[in-house]
Specification:
Layout: H1 11-15, H2 19-37, H3 42-52, E1 56-60, H4 66-69, E2 79-84, H5 87-96, E3 103-106, E4 120-126, H6 136-139, H7 141-149, E5 150-161, H8 169-181, H9 191-201, E6 202-210, E7 213-221
Parallel strand pairs: 1-2, 1-4, 2-3, 4-5
Antiparallel strand pairs: 5-7, 6-7
The structure holds S-adenosylmethionine.
C-alpha cells in the first residue's frame, strides 16, 4: 500500500514550466539532456509511444506534447486526455496536438484523478515521476491512480530518470542541482524502488534501463 501523499508538495516539480522555458524544452531536454546527460535517445522513447498508444489515451505530465505530436500513426485517437498540474504545459500541448481534439484536465498526479474509472486503454507517463517529490513508496501512489482509470486490458507506459550506477559525473552533478532546486525529486528513485511500485500495482511489468532512464510498461492492473 502506497503511503498517503498529502504531505508531498507538488509545486516545485511543476513550477519551472513557464511559457518561456517550454519554448526551449524540446531542444534542451529532448535534444541535449537526453543524449548527453541521461544517455537515453529521445527516439527510443518515441518508439514506446508508437508501440503503446491506443485510441483511448490519457497522457500525464504533458510538457510540450512532443511525443504525441510525433506519433508514427496518422490519426490515432478516439479520445485524448491531457492531465497536468501546470496550465502552461496543458496549453502548449493542447495547441500542438489540437488536430486530435484533446481534453485538458488540470490536476495533481499525486491525488486521485478526476476522471471516470476504467476509461482509458493506454496511459503515458513520461519524465513525470522524477519531478514528483517524496520517496518512491510515497510518490508511487500515482500508479494507484493510474490503475483506477485504466481498463483491465490497458497498458501504462513511460519513463523516468533514476539514480543509476552508470550515471556520468555530469549527469550526477546536474541531477543533484535539480534535486536541490526541487525541479527533480528523484534522490531515492533507484530502478529497483520504482519497479517495486509498478509491481505493487500491476501483475505484468517490463522495465529497461537505458543510461539513467528507466523505461517501463505495465499491464493487468491489480484490483
Ligand atoms: C519533465 S516534463 C515531461 C514532459 C513530457 N512528458 C516529456 O516526456 O517530455 C514534466 C511535466 O509534468 C508536469 N508535472 C509536474 N508535477 C506534476 C504533478 N504533481 N501533477 C501533474 N503534473 C505534474 C509538469 O508541469 C510538466 O508538464
Amino acid at each position: 500500500m502506497a503511503l498517503p501523499s498529502t504531505r508531498l508538495n507538488p509545486e516545485p516539480g511543476q513550477a519551472v514550466y513557464s511559457t518561456l522555458s517550454l519554448r526551449f524544452y524540446d531542444i534542451y531536454v529532448l535534444g541535449l539532456s537526453n543524449r548527453y546527460f541521461w544517455r537515453c535517445p529521445t527516439d527510443q522513447i518515441q518508439q514506446k509511444y508508437n508501440a503503446f498508444v491506443t485510441p483511448r489515451h490519457l497522457e500525464i505530465g504533458v510538457g510540450t506534447g512532443y511525443y504525441l505530436d510525433k506519433l508514427s500513426v496518422h490519426s490515432p485517437f478516439e479520445s485524448l486526455c491531457l492531465l497536468d498540474l501546470n496550465e502552461n504545459s496543458l496549453d502548449a500541448t493542447a495547441k500542438r496536438v489540437q488536430r486530435f481534439n484533446p481534453v485538458k484536465v488540470k490536476a495533481n498526479a499525486l491525488e486521485p484523478f478526476p476522471l471516470e474509472a476504467r476509461s482509458f486503454d493506454s496511459v503515458g507517463i513520461n519524465y513525470l515521476i522524477h519531478c514528483l517529490p517524496g520517496k518512491p513508496e510515497e510518490k508511487g501512489v500515482v500508479f494507484d491512480h493510474i490503475k483506477e482509470v485504466l481498463t483491465d486490458d490497458g497498458v501504462c507506459f513511460g519513463s523516468t530518470i533514476v539514480q543509476a550506477d552508470q550515471a556520468s559525473m555530469a549527469a550526477s552533478v546536474v541531477m543533484a542541482i535539480y534535486n536541490h532546486k526541487g525541479i527533480f525529486g528523484n534522490h531515492y528513485d533507484t530502478p529497483e524502488a520504482v519497479s517495486a511500485e509498478l509491481h505493487r500495482c500491476f501483475d505484468q511489468v517490463n522495465t529497461e534501463l537505458v543510461g539513467t532512464v528507466l523505461l517501463f510498461s505495465a499491464r493487468k492492473p491489480r484490483r
